[in-house]
Write a structure and sequence with these properties.
Layout: H1 2-28, H2 32-41, H3 45-53, E1 54-55, H4 60-69, H5 77-93, E2 99-103, E3 106-113, E4 122-128, H6 138-155, E5 164-169, H7 177-183, H8 186-189, E6 192-198, E7 228-234, H9 238-245, E8 251-252, E9 264-270, H10 286-289, E10 295-299, H11 321-340
Parallel strand pairs: 1-8, 4-5, 4-6, 6-10, 7-9
Antiparallel strand pairs: 2-3, 3-5, 7-10
Helix pairs in contact: 4-6, 6-11
Length: 351
């Protein structure tokens, strides 16, 4: 009997010990205090993430000021010269050293801010500055010029691994002559990783049926409203398109949350350098494709949306302020992200 008594006592002690441990875990496990304190106790990764994932905030006022200053026809030799004077003056204010590059039919503007990694290829941000006759070209393409100038202001003094290049093309409206002259200098293309070309980024329409699509476009129309930004890229350099897909995920440093609202982005990967979809070859990105350089066209879709295309009515009053600001922010976000990287942007062929 004594053995059984001792066994019973040992069993009771064991149950008591296990029970006491179990009650301790039950008290700690559901407590939210420890879980909530984890980010507070280890805040070190937060600043690093914020630095990588944030981009400087564009200024709506500065963007619209550029469009107002360029509110004139930029078609004749004199008019395009006045435009170049305005662009180069603004660039110098931001600390850039622009160069005029003459070709037989006109003059391009080029500027460069070197990166910290000599092995990392450059990113070019560009837009054409000329117009057709009789049109002041607020959307086509003062809007694109304004965004490049805003990129120059925000990212010009910000050191990044990649080199940032800027270009303003002449004579786009007469057959992409400026961009063709630019890519004809093959030596500069060897260190060019990709180009971002803006052509009309300031118009939006919100009436059902106002947005049209070209025949044969390899995409399901997202909307019959013109409230999105289209980004057209070649399938050989999908990393450029991916940067725009991710551009809405980046934090901005905007203090005014309303100013940081961004339009939807429709990315269009185009195969065979646009041979099957000629409507995708109508701007200054196309010459880069045919030189094997990755390039994207950022656009509000031009005449597929706006009734003011190549008309005298393409004036600053027709620019949709909120959409334009959001489009510019998307370009700044994508450019900032691309400049931080140093990997190859070419799409790897399937093995």
């Amino acid at each position: 009997m004594k053995k059984w008594i001792w066994l019973m006592l040992l069993l009771l002690v064991a149950v008591a010990v296990v029970g006491s441990r179990g009650s301790t875990f039950l008290e700690q496990h559901p407590s939210p205090a420890i879980v909530e304190r984890i980010p507070v106790e280890t805040p070190q990764p937060q600043p690093e993430s914020q630095e990588v994932d944030s981009a400087p905030q564009v200024s709506t006022d500065k963007l619209l000021t550029h469009i107002q200053k360029l509110n004139f026809q930029r078609y004749t030799t004199k008019e395009r010269s006045l435009t170049r004077t305005y662009i180069t003056t603004e660039l110098r204010k931001f600390g850039w050293k622009p160069k005029l590059e003459k070709f037989s039919e006109g003059v391009n503007i080029f500027a460069e801010r070197l990166g910290t990694d000599k092995a990392a290829k450059a990113i070019l941000v560009a837009a054409h500055y000329d117009t057709v006759a009789l049109s002041p070209g607020a959307d086509d393409n003062a809007s694109g010029v304004a965004v490049v100038l805003e990129v120059a202001r925000l990212l010009g003094s910000h050191p990044t691994p990649r080199t940032l290049q800027l270009a303003f093309f002449d004579q786009e409206e007469t057959g992409l002559l400026g961009s063709q002259a630019f890519v004809s200098k093959t030596a500069r293309l060897q260190n060019l990783g990709g180009a971002i070309v803006m052509d009309m980024v300031g118009y939006a329409c919100y009436t059902p049926g106002c947005q049209k699509y070209p025949a044969g476009l390899p995409v399901t129309p997202p909307s019959d409203k013109g409230d999105f930004l289209a980004v057209v890229g070649d399938t050989e350099h999908l990393s450029l398109l991916n940067a725009f897909q991710s551009s809405q995920m980046l934090r901005s440093t905007a203090l005014n949350k309303q100013e940081s609202n961004l339009p939807a982005v429709l990315t269009l990967p185009i195969p065979f350098k646009g041979l099957l979809t000629p409507d995708t070859l109508r701007s200054d990105h196309a010459p880069f494709w045919y030189q094997g350089v990755g390039a994207v066209l950022v656009t509000d879709t031009a005449n597929l949306r706006t009734p003011h295309y190549h008309q005298p009515s393409d004036v600053p009053a027709t620019i949709e302020r909120s959409f334009f600001t959001g489009a510019a922010q998307i370009v700044v976000n994508a450019t900032s992200a691309l400049l931080q990287k140093n990997e190859v942007l070419e799409t790897q062929p399937p093995s």
